[in-house]
Amino acid sequence: MTTVLDPTDESRPAARTVGSRPEDLTGRTVGLLDIAKPRGEVFLDRLAALLAERGVTVRRYAKPTFTRPMPADLRAEIAAECDVVISALAD
Amino acid sequence: MQSVTTTASSPSAAAQDLPADGLVVVVKQDCPTCRLVAPVLGALDAVDAVVYSQDDPAFPDGVAVRDDTALDASTALGIDVVPTLLHRAGGAETARVEGWDRDRWRELSGVADLGAELPEWRPGCGSRTHDPAVADELLVRARGHLLAARRVELAGLEDEAEALYDRGWTDGLPVVAPTPPRVLRMLAGTTRAPDEIVAVVPPNLVPATVEKVAINAVLAGCRPEYLPVVLAAMEAACTPEFNAHGLTATTWGAGPAVLVHGPIARRIGVNAGGNALGQGTRANATIGRALQLVIRNVGGGRPGEVDRATLGQPGKVGLCFAEDEEGSPWEPLSASRGVPPGASAVTVFAAEGPRGVVDQISRSPESLARSLARALLGVGHPKLAPGFDAMLVLAPEHVAVFAEAGWDRARFGAELDALLLRPPEELARGADGIDEGLAGPTQPQPKFRPGGLLVAVAGGGAGKFSAVLGGWVGGRGGSSPVTRVIEEA
């Protein structure tokens, strides 16, 4: 038997559970997050139009750059103002 | 092979049991000189000498012997040779004789005719505390309390290399098992305390202790003397300026690379000569790998998870080399990065694998600079400027062309900057039949942002070649090279 020392952070990945999804979006506020990848706004503009047709309140947000994690303040702002968030991740 | 008795008392307890005053003898049966002096030990009984036996409590026959097969007393007394005769007073050693020396044994014991039948002098043997078969266990007993990392037991039937791979701790290549003795030996390479926090490691922002970095340095195959370089590289890589999170997460293939500056490079054997960017040198092969393994294992930056590289490149296993500061005709790159003369340091920078540049014809600095500039334009894409950073590694035969013409590093940089300022019509989208490019440029654009091109001298003596290591997006939107002085070097 060999004993070795654990090279990892020794924690299981913090068990993050996704919040329960709303049954429908009526009366909800949906945040659309542009992570600043090129043409992300094309996708989000279309989503915004489709959501507006359904009477959903839409708020728009953008990360300063896709290369860095979202500023903590922006994350807090979205969490405070929205019920649901949709992120445009690709270019 | 005899092992150390693991149920023995701790060294501190043994130290308390040591006689505070009088004579102490340490022997082992396996030593011919100890067997030679065995009759003498009976005579020393009369003067209340305490005899410790390292390997056989029944040796010497007929003498009251203390069992030191656990080597606690020998460790506490700092025994290097057996037999050793010691005199202690008030709990401290006042005299020591190693091996058999009749006059000195008589002097210390006060027994005038001691060993009359023995030769005058015989050298002793090595103490069992230095036996490689038990040294690891003694090391763990003496310093194991410094280790805080979780211990993982590998089953006896598990193949060690397979077991470590299966736990997800490797970059795909085999690793060295980080056993407690190996980690303790690695920690001897630094003066820093094992529980000191070195850096908060992206992407999961996990604090890494010196011990955790040492464990991963063992995995990577580092020698203990490399550890100060790995620690400094960790500090540099975990700064916001370097942005290891973004570099790990990007779909682009660059990874963190390490350039070593100053005398530590030669001292620990970081290659700056032939094949400096290749295989075959342990320091080059393992220092960058240790950095990447910490990001993987502690920070959680794993391919397919946070690491989203489209293609990656082999330098992501680890890339480390040194500048040939002694062979270079120029002031070292480290000078412009704030490293005091004579100090050792690391610069961590985002890098792809090297792309060689051939120019065997140019003998004028103007011509060679144009060659190198042409090659540098290819970083990322020839029509994107400025964008990605890069590292240019000049081999000796190329830098000599500039030095012999009187170009110093500053002149070379200025000439290169001029050549790398590209006209808008060359860079515009659609130009040259290529859709990629800049959107509506009106002014000439520099290929690299200020400070975005690092130039180092390295490589073997033959070959009119250089190498370009493309980087990643430079500056606030990406990564900037970061230099750290190795304070303990």
From TrEMBL, chain A:
Q: Which InterPro entries match?
A: UGSC-like_dom
According to the UniProt record, where is the region Disordered? Answer: 1-23
Q: Residue ranges of the UGSC-like domain?
A: 3-91
Its domain of life reads Bacteria
Q: Which Pfam families match?
A: UGSC
Indicate what this protein is called per its UniProt record. UGSC-like domain-containing protein
| Originating species | Actinomycetospora cinnamomea
Automatic annotation (TrEMBL), chain B:
Task: Write down the CDD domains for this protein, in alphabetical order.
Answer: TRX_family (cd02947)
Its protein name is Thioredoxin
> What species was this sequence derived from?
Actinomycetospora cinnamomea
